[in-house]
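Practice set, problem 2.
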Amino acid sequence: MDLAERRRRLVARAGSLVAVIAAWMFMWYRRRMLAPPAVTYGPMLERDRVRAEQLRFIYHSDDVQCVELLRMKRAPFFQLCDLFRSRQLLRDSIHTSIEEQVAMFLLVVGHNLRFRCIKMTFRRSIETISRYFREVLYAVGELRNKMIVPPSTAVPAKIRNSRRWYPYFKDCIGAIDGTHVLARVPASQRAAFLGRKGTTTQNVLAAVDFDLRFTYVLAGWGGSAHDALILADALEREDGLRVPQGKFYLADAGYAVRPGFLPPFRGTRYHLREFGARTPQNARELFNLRHSSLRVTVERAFG
């Protein structure tokens, strides 16, 4: 192939390339001219700045403020967020961190707030808050096997190191009680869920050890159900509450005496405020006072 032929082919290829580039530029220009105008938004800088200040106040203040807002101290809050992150139950997004997602959830459940009430705090839409609430709720459910563990059969340190309770309560592994949680139910089921205070609630049974760790939780019963009935159901379930041989839980006077559960004496002073300046006058009063001071663990766990 001579030099002239090579030059002719090179010129032809260059011409083809120029034609392709020109056609692409024409199509790009035409699409841009015919495309609808882009939606423009107002500046987001101020909104982001206010949101950052609100979040900094919520979980970077002292423990007192953090407990009032999120119902937990700063260290457990960040440990919970790190747990979600390490287990990949939640993910940081471009605009929302895991800490903000969890803070939204805790504000709602800790204070029984509606999404509309916190949208100005986080400068988020109701849809965004609802979406992250569901994601955090699912993540919390996935931690059930970590957060709710069977009780230890060893003597609790709180009892072993106290002359008030050892050796009398050495076989005690925790305390049980019921707590009422507000619930929304269809009108046809309202009567079954109507609690003592005239609101619809669930009566949730929980067992707690003396390190404030939940060892069993049963939810779903209506607010009108008696605590003893719920306990009987928990014991009959295949995956229900199990008491190790020779051990027992402390219970209040609403429960009957039965193997594995120890209520106080009825008709006898029980709570510390009932004694006032007087000391226990007999063995039953002394037992009830010790029983009350130990069973208060479950009340502390409920908050």
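Problem 2, part (b): a different protein.
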Amino acid sequence: MVTTPLEFFPPASYIPLTDPDYAALFPHIDEETLNAILHHDFPAAELYKLDTRRLQESSWNMVDLQDSPTSPTSVAFRAVPSAREIYKTLDSLLVPLNMYFSILSIHALANGQPITVPHYFFRYSSHLVKISAQYEWSAVLLYHFAFFARRCSEMLNGDYSGWAKNDVDLMEEILIQHHNKPKIRRA
């Protein structure tokens, strides 16, 4: 099998990010979040912002003002849930991750990336499904955050292909020691 080296494509930063098409295609995602995604500096822990099922929770880390006739206005800060609280299951991660991949696919293909970019994202989604069945969820989530950060660094240089590769070093570092225990069937 002969492989050819990937062509270099300039980073997303040269693209004007005021393109109204993104806002029309993803009306539930604010401009700041879209810009972070297109500039590859969107943190994996904030994928929940892309999940339309969680729009009610988008007010996390906001200030609550409470007013009652018997007491003066009080201020309370809501705590932001931890990643383990937000991403309790594979589904809670995959739904917003697929939205992230949709945004990146449109952006990459519109800017001259190879037509295989969506394939890279499908490969990673499949990889997550496989490892979530083999390893403890908390380790899979940690692996995902580290993997995601590495891919964002690569995408800054126009390389999206890392999403299709298994990061063996990262798997050894984070996953291997957290293998799921086999389930014992009782007769």
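Answer key, part (b): Residues 14-20, 58-64 have pLDDT under 50 and may be disordered. The radius of gyration is 20 Å.
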